[in-house]
Write a structure and sequence with these properties.
4 helices, single chain, alpha+beta, globular, 193 residues
Amino acid sequence: MDPARPRHGPTTVSHATHPGHATTTRPAALAFAHTRPGANTRPHGLGSEARGKPAPERIDDITALDAISLSRAIHARQVSCREVMRAYLARIHRLNPQANAIVSLVPDEVALAEAERCDAELGGPGGRHRGRWGSRGWMHGFPQAIKDTAHAKGLPTTFGSPLLAADVAATDSLYVQRMKASGAIVIGKTNMP
C-alpha cells in the first residue's frame, strides 16, 4: 500500500475543485459530488427530494429536476413524458438562439409523438415495448441531445464542420443505442466547442 495515499475506502480520487485551491481526496463513489464549501456533498444520483428540494409543481420546474428525480416523477406518473418534453422544448426554443447549444433539433411534433408513445407504454394497454408493458428503463421519456461527435440515426453528424452538414447517420453510435434502450428520446445534436 502506498503510504502517501490516504485510505478512504477501496478506491480514491484526487482532484482540485478550482485552480489554486487545495487538492482533495475523496472516495470514488463521491468523486463527482459538489465540493464547494457549504455545497451538498452527497453524490449525484440522489433525487432532489433526498436533498430537501420540493417536487415540481409547474411545468417550468420540470427542467430543474436532476435525472433521478425526473425518472422517479415519470415512473410515479407525477408528470407525463409529454409534459417533460414540452418543458424541455420550450426551454430550448427560449435559450438556444443565444446559446447555440443545439445545432440539430428534431421537429417538435416528432419529439412530442415519441413522448406520447412513452406515456402509453407506462400506462399499460396503450403500448408495448420489447414484448412487455411499462418502462423501457430509468431514462424512460427523457429528452436527450447527443454530442455532434456521435451518430444518432436520422440526424446529421458534422463534428462541428459545415462541410459535413449533409452527412446523416444511418445508425446509432453504441452509447446512443444504450441511452435509447434505457428509454431516452433523442431530440437533437449539441454543438462542439
